[in-house]
Structure to design on (222 residues):
C-alpha cells in the first residue's frame, strides 16, 4: 500500500482517498499491536515533531521492530522509516515500509540453540493468544509461510497421531499452557520426554523467547 503525505498530514492514496495520518496509523497499525509499551514507543517515534528532529540531527533513517497481531496470529515486523528533503519542492517528507520478518527474527534469536541440536521441528508458542508458529527442519521438510495453528489443535493432532497411547495423558498434562508457564516461571526452561508410536523417545524442550510477552519456543528432538 503506497500513499503520499500532504502538508496537512493527510495520507493520499492512488485512488484519491484521503485519510488523516494519525487516524490511519490508529486503525491499521496501533490497534493490531498487542503490547501497550510498543504502541507508546511507536506513537512517539512516528510523531511529526520527532521525525523532523531526527532529520535535523542527521538521523534520517530508523529501523524499529515490534510485534503485530493479525487474525489472532502473532507476527514480528520490521518498520523502516526514512525522512528526506524533496529536491523539487524542498519539503521534508518521509516514507515508511513495514515488513513481516517473523521467520528471520525467530531464526536469529534461536540460532545458537539450533546449531547445537539435531531438531526435527521448532515452534514459537504464543501463550497469551494460544497459537503456534510452526517451523520444520529445513533439511528434511518444506517450510510453509505463515504456518500459524491454534495451539490446542496442534496438541490434539500430535497426541492422536504421534504419541504412544500409554503416554498420551502425560503428554496432554505436560503441554498444557498453564503447566508450561508455571514450570518456566522459575527456571526459564522446561523439558520432558515421551515415546512415540514407533516406541522412540521424543524430547520436548521449552525456552523463553520473550518472557514479558509470554512467548516461548519448543524444540522437538528424537
Amino acid at each position: 500500500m503506497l500513499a503520499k503525505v500532504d502538508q496537512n498530514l493527510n495520507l493520499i492514496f492512488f485512488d484519491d482517498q484521503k485519510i488523516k495520518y494519525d487516524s490511519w496509523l490508529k486503525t491499521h497499525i496501533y490497534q493490531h499491536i498487542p503490547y501497550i509499551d510498543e504502541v507508546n514507543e511507536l506513537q512517539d517515534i512516528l510523531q511529526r515533531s520527532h521525525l523532523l528532529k531526527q532529520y535535523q540531527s542527521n538521523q534520517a533513517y530508523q529501523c524499529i521492530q515490534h510485534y503485530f497481531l493479525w487474525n489472532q496470529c502473532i507476527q514480528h515486523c520490521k518498520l523502516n522509516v526514512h525522512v528526506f528533503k524533496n529536491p523539487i519542492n524542498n519539503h521534508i517528507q518521509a516514507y515508511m515500509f513495514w515488513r513481516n520478518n517473523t521467520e528471520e527474527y525467530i531464526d536469529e534469536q534461536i540460532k545458537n540453540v539450533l546449531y547445537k541440536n539435531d531438531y526435527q521441528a521448532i515452534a514459537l508458542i504464543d501463550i497469551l493468544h494460544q497459537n503456534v508458529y510452526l517451523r520444520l527442519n529445513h533439511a528434511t521438510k518444506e517450510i510453509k509461510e505463515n504456518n500459524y495453528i491454534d495451539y490446542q489443535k496442534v496438541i490434539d493432532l500430535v497426541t492422536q497421531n504421534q504419541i504412544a497411547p500409554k503416554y498420551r495423558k502425560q503428554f496432554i498434562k505436560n503441554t498444557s499452557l498453564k503447566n508450561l508457564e508455571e514450570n518456566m516461571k522459575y527456571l526459564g526452561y522446561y523439558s520432558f520426554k515421551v515415546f512415540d508410536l514407533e516406541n522412540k523417545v521424543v524430547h520436548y524442550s521449552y525456552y523463553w523467547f520473550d518472557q514479558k510477552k509470554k512467548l516461548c519456543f519448543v524444540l522437538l528432538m528424537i
Residues 115 and 199 are 26 Å apart (CA to CA). Residues 106-221 form a domain with the Beta-Lactamase fold (CATH 3.30.450). Confidence is low (pLDDT under 50) at residues 138-146. The radius of gyration is 22 Å.
